[in-house]
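One chain is below:
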Amino acid sequence: MCDRAPGGEVEIVPNCFRVIQRSNWKIFLENQLDALHPSVTHQSTGRAAHEVEKEIAKRTRKGEAPLSYHMLSAFATVTIDKWDNFQTLNYPHGHCILTGYMGLRPQDPDTLAYDKVMIKAYGQKRFEEIVGVNIHHVLIYPGLSVQSPLQQLRAVRPLGVDRTLTEIWHFRLKGAPEAIYRRSLAYYNLVNSPATLVNADDLENFWKCHQGLSSDGGDWVSFARHLGRDIEKNGVVETAPNCGTSEAPMRNQMKAWARYMTAEK
């Protein structure tokens, strides 16, 4: 995240969003890199945003709606088959990466102005290395969730077996144009705020999952989607091509958790 700042530093933007979830902390972490749920769980929100996006585009001279609408409409337009084109990388100790999916390098004036400032600060070669990192989301297991392209970090704090506090912090890139900050702030408010439809969908599902796991309905939870198709290279498990909705991140987290619980190193 600091590399993406022309000044080489970021600053915290107060205040953070704090949410107490009525569910176990592991459910939240499993959801963070689950590529299957967005186009299903958030379909209604994405579809509504997409319809408004199209109406705005009709009324504008260039036929374009603000990027903030795309942040929501992507939940409908990026369908399950498209999610399978992406990839997760799963590292020892439960750490995981979801590669980029939203195309956050548009050629609009705001982005081009940011690119110009970055090239001046780092040079063309280093600039391409920084913005070319194909990461949307990083999970530092078991307590941090980081979205560096959108300047956000979540700290996960278990308060009990059925209560989890998440703190969502937002950062400003020092030296970057104000428009870049405003863009990331829009995502912060539209997608990750406690008041959004997106977050509300997730929180309800987390609670339902926890209620189901607390019942006598079954002793096992299946994380078998695309099991056996993962590719392991030097201890890193990659999802296979066209298997981006694999539950490999969940399997990776559960293996790490089991080792921590048994003190296995």
User: Anything to note?
Assistant: The beta strands are 10-21, 88-90, 96-98, 137-140, 144-147, 152-160, 163-173, 231-233, 236-238. The chain has a mean pLDDT of 90. The first helix runs from residue 25 to 32. Residues 2-35+85-261 form a domain with the Naphthalene 1,2-dioxygenase Alpha Subunit; Chain A, domain 1 fold (CATH 3.90.380.10).
